[in-house]
Write a structure and sequence with these properties.
Blueprint lengths: L1 H10 L3 H23 L2 H9 L2 H4 L32 E9 L2 E8 L29 E4 L4 E4 L2
Antiparallel strand pairs: 1-2, 3-4
Length: 148
C-alpha cells in the first residue's frame, strides 16, 4: 500500500499524467453509464445498423457534427413525413376511383451549400388493383421528373 501511494505521489508531479488519468476514469465512467442505461438488445440493434436504423442517412454524406469545424455549413439530412402532418395536403378526385394527392413541404433551409442529392422513400398501401404514379418536382431547379 505504501508503494502504491508513493507511485501516485510521483505521478502527481506530471500534469500530463494527471490529465491522462482523468481521461481514463472519464472513459470508464461513460462505459459504465452506457452499459447500464441502454438495454442489451437495443445496443446490439444499434451496433449492427440495419435498414431500420440507418435508412434515413445517406451513406456517402459526412456526419452533421462536421459542420462545427467548417466555415461553410454543409446540408444535413432533413426528414419530412406526410404521416406526421408536416405537409400541406391537397387531394383531387379525378373520377373513376382515381385521386391525385399533392403534398407541399415548407421548411427552413439554413445551409450554405446546395444539396448534392435527394432521396425519397415512399410507403404505399394499395387496396385492390390500381396504378401508383409519382411526380417529383424540384422547385429549386425547376425540373419535373416523372416515372409515369
Amino acid at each position: 500500500m505504501i508503494a502504491f501511494r508513493k507511485s501516485l505521489k510521483d505521478l502527481a508531479q506530471y500534469p500530463s499524467a494527471i490529465a491522462g488519468m482523468i481521461m481514463i476514469f472519464g472513459f470508464l465512467a461513460i462505459s459504465v453509464y452506457a452499459v447500464t442505461s441502454i438495454p442489451y438488445n437495443e445496443a446490439i440493434r444499434l451496433w449492427r445498423g440495419g435498414e431500420g436504423v440507418w435508412y434515413k442517412n445517406p451513406v456517402a454524406a459526412p456526419p452533421a457534427w462536421t459542420n462545427y469545424f467548417r466555415s461553410e455549413k454543409l446540408p444535413e439530412s432533413i426528414v419530412l413525413s406526410s404521416s406526421e402532418g408536416s405537409a400541406e395536403k391537397i387531394i383531387t378526385d379525378k373520377g373513376d376511383g382515381i385521386s391525385e394527392t399533392l403534398l407541399t413541404y415548407t421548411f427552413d433551409y439554413s445551409f450554405d451549400a446546395f444539396p448534392q442529392g435527394t432521396r425519397s422513400l415512399f410507403h404505399v398501401h394499395i387496396h385492390g388493383q390500381g396504378t401508383v404514379c409519382f411526380d417529383l418536382v424540384d422547385h429549386a431547379r425547376w425540373e419535373r421528373n416523372s416515372n409515369c
